[in-house]
Design a protein that fits this description.
Oligomer: single chain
Strand order of the largest sheet: 1-6-5-2-3-4
Distance between the termini: 74 Å
Shape: elongated
CATH class of the largest domain: Alpha Beta
Largest sheet: 6 strands, antiparallel
């Protein structure tokens, strides 16, 4: 009797639990990428958000002729496009799909309807690996699902008292609004890398904006940017805090103005003043 026939007969009589242990293969999901669905707001996602569930698998669809990104990988739920894998993370995955080296699969890991569209759906891209002796220590980190960090949900942290002035202008945007403005005013997807690399924790951005911890150094601003447009003022006076740092030239930034010029910013760099307080310096492209 052929092995395949023997296995079918054995399963039919006793169920899979009765198979000899050396005949049952064990597999483990190995996660290659965990991310939010990019471009969710532009496709079918918002229309079918109530239909989307974590038990549903996603289809990975290559779009090599995509005019914006030749490595584009679309994500489909029930044959309806809900967005893409982020551009900055798709190059190697597109090669794996095109060459057929690995059978990539995708699943929804988190759904957060209260977040903005670009943070509503979190997904994981994975492969199934056959295990011979259980999960090894080297594989273990790649078997764990991450809890996403949301930048568009109101955080519950207690904000610090403003260190250098207490007066708050009524029209100063919040940390959440700052994030939204950066995204909406950016001409490319690089804004997501800018934000997430500069602020690994959403709370850091909220505090930097809400507590006026965003600063600029007048000596480092390129000539293409007018200092007067991005400096914070109270009663028409510049909020000068250069004495708080070892370098001269530091002033508080106008977060409203900074939020609308993401294409001119290379990073937000964490710095510490002489009293040990955290600030974020806006670093501009030269």
């Amino acid at each position: 009797m052929k092995r395949s026939e023997f296995l079918r007969n054995l399963i039919g009589l006793y169920g899979i639990a009765s198979l000899p242990i050396d005949m049952v293969k064990q597999y483990q999901k190995i996660y290659l990428l965990q991310c939010f669905v990019r471009g969710f707001q532009y496709y079918e996602g918002p229309k079918i958000i109530d239909e989307i569930n974590k038990s549903g698998l996603l289809e990975l669809v290559r779009e090599p002729d995509n005019k914006y990104d030749e490595c584009a990988i679309a994500l489909h739920f029930n044959q309806r496009k809900i967005g893409f894998i982020p551009m900055e993370s798709n190059e190697m995955l597109s090669i794996l799909i095109d060459t057929g080296l690995l059978n990539l699969q995708a699943e929804i890991t988190h759904i957060e309807k209260n977040a903005m569209d670009w943070e509503k759906i979190h997904v994981a891209i994975y492969v199934m690996k056959e295990l011979e002796n259980g999960i090894t220590e080297e594989l273990l980190p790649f078997t764990i699902l991450e809890t996403p960090r949301y930048y568009t949900l109101k955080s519950n942290h207690d904000t610090y008292t403003r260190l250098y002035y207490e007066e708050q202008e009524d029209d100063v945007i919040s940390g959440e609004e700052f994030y939204k403005s950066l995204v909406s005013n950016s001409s490319t997807d690089e804004v997501y890398t800018l934000i997430h690399n500069s602020f690994p924790n959403p709370e850091d951005m909220d505090e930097a904006v809400d507590d006026s911890r965003m600063v600029i150094n007048r000596n480092k601003i390129p000539k293409t940017i007018s200092v007067s447009e991005i400096e914070a003022r109270i009663d028409n006076e510049i909020i000068n805090i250069e004495d708080a740092f070892d370098e001269d030239g530091y002033i508080v930034a106008n977060v409203n103005a900074v939020a609308v010029i993401p294409d001119k910013i290379s990073s937000f760099q964490k710095i510490i003043d002489k009293h040990g307080n955290d600030f974020y310096e806006v670093i501009f492209k030269q």
